[in-house]
Design a protein that fits this description.
A five-stranded antiparallel beta sheet has the order 2-1-5-4-3. It is built from 21 helices and five strands. Helix 5 runs antiparallel to helix 6, helix 12 runs antiparallel to helix 14 and helix 14 packs parallel to helix 16. By secondary structure, the protein is of the alpha+beta class. 57% of the residues lie in helices and 8% in strands.
């Protein structure tokens, strides 16, 4: 049904050398032996060769002697997968054993912020699917109760014409997502809704709008639970606005409109919230109102969009401006050491196996503070008609500057912005500001990052370090040729997420 890949070069060499531990491998560690023997044995099993059994015996001996127990489950999974392909009873037992090992090691925290042992097994399942062993991949992901991977595999089945089985696998994925729990966390409903939304977005990217709407329906059902258990008052609003956009893209226009109409009163009600961090809450309210107005616009509800801007966004901005003292200008204090600290904290948040009470907005706000203050927007969609996916501002009055910022960026990079990175002197709320932007594609969707920094000046940083030509005046309008800050907005839950093949450290 699904063609298995050819024997890898490593396995081919092993075949030529007769696969003797003494000839093919020169006294490596038990960890390396376990990896190599399990991989080679799996390749034999994929070819249907009983030679795999001999290699698996050697793999098992090395697995028992491994010193790095954190990822011991990986070779066990490959051995179990090989037996499973050969339709031997040991296969199912070893697959279960691999998962038990991974779960036990995960509880020890052995992986720190790196890929967790169970995530590593999920990555192996995706590798098996890519190699043509889709049935095995589905078996492993089902045992792992991994909804995101199963949703991906349902698409592969649908593409192969196995629509009935594709529906079965997708239904199983939805069931797992609805049952998802994070030990010790009270806002699991938020995670479940995020997982379902992410699954639906993947299905949309795979051009399966009907399947996506099926998943979004389940996400809608969990919204009330998010509202009652969320740790942050902003969480239900952010989840609902994201789901509104996804519903609209799937063609469920009326559902998107209904959800948006339910969400706007919730945003307004946040004004009476007694949060201690009032400035951050005000910034979130302003950003949510702008995002809601944009959603109205994207749903072809121009009158509602204008009304929201006139009745809520502009008064909100005026009230905030009247109630706040003029911010004190702060000199940027960001240097290499502080930037590394910021990156480490954000990486820890993204890769952590446990839920966090902090939001991505708070981390980005700290970076902007060190840059002297500013605003960052993540736009999604084609250049001629983008939507706002994410916004953070250190001053509330900048939350409504998206159109001003986007217009400048578009004039700079043009309509064909894919892959472009620019930095130039522009304007923010009537004042000079250093603007940096980066266009990229993720999950087959175009995105544009744009940041405006009114008190940050890269030429000053260069001069402080010693410019190569100190006698030449820096021209801030020219900007660095390819200066950019690459950032990734990751919506993920514990043990769930994509499997990028880029430069990230992976297991």
């Amino acid at each position: 049904m699904f063609p298995a890949k050819h024997l890898t070069p490593l396995a081919a060499i092993a075949l030529l050398l007769g696969l003797s531990a003494g000839k093919a491998i020169a006294s490596p560690s038990a960890d390396i032996k376990a990896k190599l023997f399990s991989e080679i044995g799996f390749e034999y099993a994929a070819l249907g060769s009983d030679r795999a059994l001999e290699v698996f015996d050697q793999a098992q001996q090395s697995i028992d002697e491994m010193t790095n127990r954190c990822y011991q489950a990986n070779p066990v999974l490959r051995v179990g997968g090989g037996y499973w392909l050969l339709e031997r009873a040991e296969g199912d037992r070893l697959l279960n054993e691999a998962i038990e090992i991974a779960q036990a090691q995960e509880k020890t925290g052995c992986s720190s912020s790196a890929t967790s042992p169970t995530e590593s097994l999920a990555n192996r399942a995706r590798e098996f699917a890519k190699a043509g062993h889709l049935d095995l991949a589905i078996e492993i992901s089902t045992k792992l109760r991994d909804p995101v991977s199963l949703a991906e595999f349902s698409t592969l089945l649908a593409e192969a014409g196995e629509t009935e089985r594709a529906d079965e696998v997708l239904n199983q994925a939805i069931e797992f997502a609805q049952q998802f729990e994070v030990p010790g966390v009270t806002d699991a409903a938020e995670w479940r809704t995020m997982i379902l939304s992410y699954m639906g977005e993947q299905l949309l990217a795979a051009e399966r709008p009907e399947a996506a709407r099926q998943v979004f329906d389940r996400a809608l059902e969990s919204i009330p639970a998010v509202e009652s258990t969320a740790l942050s008052p902003a969480a239900p609003v952010q989840v609902s606005l994201r789901l509104t956009t996804a519903l609209a893209e799937s063609g469920a226009t009326q559902q998107a409109i209904d959800l948006l109409n339910q969400t706007i009163p919730t945003i307004r009600a946040l004004r009476g919230n007694s949060a201690t961090d009032r400035a951050s809450l005000n910034a979130m309210i302003g950003g949510a109102l702008v995002a809601a107005a944009i959603a109205h616009h994207e749903l072809d509800q121009q009158d509602q969009a204008i009304a929201l801007l006139v009745e809520d966004v502009v008064p909100e901005r005026g009230a905030l401006a009247a109630g706040l003292e003029e911010p004190v200008a702060r000199e940027p204090i960001l240097d290499a050491a502080r930037m590394i600290e910021h990156l480490a904290r954000i990486s820890q948040w993204v890769l952590s196996d446990s839920a966090s009470s902090r939001t991505l907005e708070s981390f980005v706000s700290e970076v902007l503070d060190d840059l002297g203050g500013g605003v960052l927007f993540l736009f999604q969609g084609e250049v001629e008609r983008p939507g706002i996916k994410f916004v953070v501002a250190t001053e509330a009055r900048w939350l409504v500057s998206g159109e001003e910022l986007f217009t400048q960026v578009r004039e700079r990079v043009g309509d064909e912005a894919e892959g472009r990175a620019e930095a130039f002197l522009g304007r923010l709320d009537g004042h000079d500001a250093w603007i940096a932007c980066q266009a990229f594609t993720a999950l087959e969707r175009p995105y544009l990052f744009a940041a405006a920094l009114p008190r940050f000046s890269p030429p000053r940083v260069v001069a402080a370090r010693g410019a190569p030509d100190p006698g030449r005046a820096a021209d801030p309008r020219a900007g660095p040729s390819r200066r950019s800050v690459r950032a990734h907005l990751v919506w993920s839950a514990r043990r769930v997420g994509s499997d990028p093949s880029s430069g990230a450290r992976r297991r």
